[in-house]
Amino acid sequence: MKLRTLGCSGGIGGNQRTTSFLLDRDILIDAGTGVNELSLTELSMIDHVFISHSHLDHIASIPLMVDSVWAMRDRPLMIYGIEQTLDILKQHIFNWKIWPDFSQIPNTQQPSMVYRTIQLGEAVQLNGRRITAVPANHAVPAVGFHLDSGKASLVYSGDTTSCDALWEVVNRIENLRYLIIETAFSDNEKELAVLSKHLCPSLLGVELTKLQREAEVYITHLKPGEIELTMQQIEASATHRHPKMLLNNQELEF
């Protein structure tokens, strides 16, 4: 399995693109503005989209993507998420007011898009690849994802604050190789991080002490304008794990 970072920023502007990862050639893990990096042909090859939660920076590209490629495809795009997340997409995005309901286009018998509800802890098997929803603690119902090739695993936290349930799952993964975890605010905005249920460097430092497995740790969701400051604070707060900043177009193979 190969995970390509299409976007890993907490905002836009310049070269900043919001959260989206391309797994191999046919799976998206979240679908923020980073999806815009793909060509039309690449977009048409995506069959599955796994959504961690309903916030705009993680779903922004789904409406435009399905509109751009539905006529090029002979099967529907599968949208995976927990029930609460999919309900929000149905009610507030694909509702004919914000965007057409592509689960009815061109018709209900042959839709361009199909929703697939997943449960926390449920493993979806796709050609030998296992994708499992793992716990997260955010301002809206949310999950992270455990991606397992059989040889090695990667865990993506999604958006989360402190979450003991996440570490209980992660520490049972014997073949863990990579951890991608968010840090959305600097410690200068710790109160905002707590209010919005995100991590800041001091909170991240505490969370990483709960990680009992060896893994390469990458930081995602840094806010534009605070990247250098936040990474400096992370380096001071999590010296035992040596986290690295995730980069656009970075590829992790496992």
Task: Please tag this protein with its features.
7-stranded mixed sheet; 2 domains; alpha/beta; 24% helix; single chain; 254 residues; Metallo-beta-lactamase, Chain A; 8 helices; 14 strands
Explain what the structure shows.
This protein has eight helices and 14 strands. It is an alpha/beta fold. It folds into two domains: 116 residues, Ribonuclease Z/Hydroxyacylglutathione hydrolase-like (Metallo-beta-lactamase, Chain A, 4-Layer Sandwich), CATH 3.60.15; 126 residues, Ribonuclease Z/Hydroxyacylglutathione hydrolase-like (Metallo-beta-lactamase, Chain A, 4-Layer Sandwich). The strands form two sheets. A seven-stranded mixed β-sheet has the order 6-5-4-3-2-1-14. Helix 7 packs parallel to helix 8. The N and C termini lie close together (5 Å).
